[in-house]
Design brief:
It contains 24 helices and three strands. The chain has 600 residues and is an all-alpha fold.
Length: 600
């Protein structure tokens, strides 16, 4: 429930109080009260400090601003982070119980990661919460701003005026980001040029000279009838001016800087270990993205084993189709033959929606409780090109459903054999089910309802793909091959990510490995490898998280025998919100013990 104004004002006022003062003010041994004060204060600070995040959650108090990326703001966030770190040390963990204990463990995990990065970054002009790479082909203001517009409400005059203020703030915001990029050049914290080559073209989508055709003008094209005609006309004129005077000139400057200054200064080396932070930086990325302490070597070797196992299953599935030829020929056949491809994007959408409906009907057999927030399936924007399909979270507070954003931009190059597993991953029982369930949990602090631990979230989504067979999917060998190809896609990431960032793999070597093992076209392999290059460690979370959840399921099943209830197990995994994997281990152990006690 959204807090009242008075409670919100009080919470924001609390943010101005030092964490040290909060700890000192608490009653002796009142560890729980102290923890709640710290968490509530920090949450309100996060929403105010990162207004785009607040908007995405349906909190519209700060919809008139963009995140301050100035040096002063970065220093302020670093100081806040340090104060929070010190405050956490004052919490008596042995006095906490239940969800409070989990909350503190999560905070300690986050805090440990921030401290790792602080040691690596030192006195550089960015912090653990303000990354050094502000633009890439995968992420950045050129992509996040249209998504922010989609997440923003446009029901009242004030909503539109807030949006106009955001557009007016864009020149300052982009100038601040440009300064950060200049500091990156000076410090040597630079991404590889090869992976960022498409960014100038991506920025060009914001350089439309006719304001009414601009992506960011879309909210003004279909305004609600509750706004008078005169006000609509005024706001639309202001929107056109904002596009012409703020958006186009500032993105033009950013594009020019990228082409003339930033890209020429980018690295030729690929590996994260070649950055100034060295091997410690890549290990920190592994720690943060996987919430494990596994080494690059351990992950690489695990990946090789998984690739070998899945390869054998893919070969067996291929043979079951009666295909005469090797795997390379089979992959070419199913990627190009007309029986597997589409002619219209609308046909792809219809098929995705049919799969989702079939999955929805089976969910009660696998979950004791399901989220109420609905989801939809819609086409990705044309300007997103060949980027991967993805999930956009909804918000009950904001009145938005979740959406599986399906890429139907090139139907003749798209195949149906992997569609079932993709729906399982992005919609249900994958991302939508997990994220919507977390948002609706009662008795948890708000930050936990909206946390995103990569290995947990992506591990759950990949585990959800594996549930497809039990849900009644993958009944033909081609769809089963598609599911295995998706699993192989993630297994090769363990090998390639560590290969690039720790073991000196070349880009061509990584592309060839992807093509050979993961049923990938050359274009798909190139896009994937460039993703790993700019997101070191991120791609590791999928397989490591999935394997952990599968191991926990096997452990629980063995311990409980006939008393094992898969529906209850799934809710045990989901019903604490996203967790670091070690904390998830602890919670499932407790759940097993509780089930055994109940049965006895």
């Amino acid at each position: 429930m959204r807090p009242t104004f008075s409670r919100t004002a009080a919470a924001l006022a609390l943010c101005a109080v030092s964490f040290t003062a909060l700890a000192a003010d608490a009653a002796p041994n009142a560890a729980s009260r102290r923890l709640h004060q710290l968490v509530d204060a920090d949450w309100q600070w996060q929403l105010q400090e990162y207004p785009e995040f607040a908007t995405s959650l349906g909190d519209n108090r700060f919809n008139d601003r963009l995140t301050d990326q100035s040096a002063t703001a970065v220093a302020r966030r670093s100081a806040h982070q340090q104060a929070f770190h010190l405050a956490l040390q004052s919490i008596a963990e042995n006095q906490l119980r239940g969800q409070d204990r989990i909350t503190l463990e999560i905070l300690h995990s986050n805090d440990a990661q921030a401290e790792r990065l602080k040691r690596i970054y030192g006195k550089l002009p960015f912090s653990a919460s303000d990354d050094w790479m502000v633009l890439s082909q995968m992420d950045g203001i050129h992509q996040s701003l249209p998504a922010l517009a989609k997440a923003s409400p446009f029901n009242t005059v004030r909503d539109y005026e807030n949006y106009l203020k955001r557009l007016a703030a864009l020149p300052t915001h982009l100038a601040q980001l440009t300064l950060r990029m200049q500091q990156g050049i000076q410090s040597g914290w630079m991404p590889p040029a090869i992976a960022l080559r498409a960014v100038p073209e991506q920025i060009a989508t914001h350089l439309e000279t006719d304001p009414q055709k601009a992506i960011l003008y879309r909210p003004f094209l279909d305004m609600p009838a509750t706004i008078s005609a005169a006000e609509q006309s005024r706001l639309q004129a202001a929107g056109r001016s904002a596009i012409a005077d703020s958006v186009v000139p500032s993105f033009t400057k950013l594009q020019r800087f990228m082409i003339e200054k930033y890209l020429p200064a980018c690295r030729t080396e690929l590996g994260a270990t070649t950055l100034p932070g060295g091997a410690a930086f890549y290990q920190a990325m592994i720690n943060g993205q996987t919430t494990t302490n596994l080494s690059p070597k351990e992950i690489h070797e695990l990946g090789l084993k998984e690739v070998a196992r899945i390869n054998a299953e893919m070969d067996a599935t291929m043979r079951s189709t009666g295909f005469k030829g090797d795997r390379a020929a089979f992959q070419h056949f199913i990627n190009t033959d007309a029986q597997f491809t589409f002619t219209r994007g609308s046909d792809m959408l219809a098929r995705y929606r049919d799969i989702a409906k079939r999955a929805d009907a089976e969910l009660p057999r696998f979950f004791a409780e399901l989220p109420r927030l609905p989801y939809g399936i819609r086409a990705m924007e044309a300007y997103e090109g060949d980027n991967a399909a993805h999930y956009t979270s909804g918000s009950a507070k904001g009145g938005r459903a979740g959406y599986f954003e399906a890429n139907v931009n090139n139907p003749t190059k798209s195949t149906w054999y992997g569609m079932e597993s993709l729906v399982m991953h992005e919609a249900v029982p994958g991302h939508h089910l997990q994220i919507a369930r977390a948002q609706e949990l009662q008795g948890l602090p708000e930050f936990r309802k909206n946390s995103n631990f990569n290995a947990y979230a992506e591990g759950w989504a990949l585990y959800a793909e594996s549930l497809g067979g039990e849900l009644g999917m993958y009944t033909d060998p081609y769809s089963k091959f598609g599911q295995l190809a998706g699993e192989m896609w993630r297994a090769t990431r363990l090998v390639i990510d560590t290969g690039i960032h720790a073991f000196g793999w070349s880009r061509d070597q990584a592309i060839a490995y992807k093509e050979t093992n993961a049923a990938a076209s050359h274009e798909e392999a190139v896009a994937e490898i460039d993703r790993y290059i700019v997101w070191p460690g991120q791609a590791l979370g999928y397989k490591l998280g999935e394997l952990r959840i599968k191991a926990l399921r096997a452990k629980a099943s063995a311990a409980l025998g006939e008393r094992f209830d898969l529906r209850k197990f799934h809710n045990a995994v989901l019903d604490n919100g996203a967790l670091p994997l070690d904390v998830l281990d602890q919670q499932i152990d407790l759940w097993i013990a509780q089930q055994q006690k109940t049965a006895s």
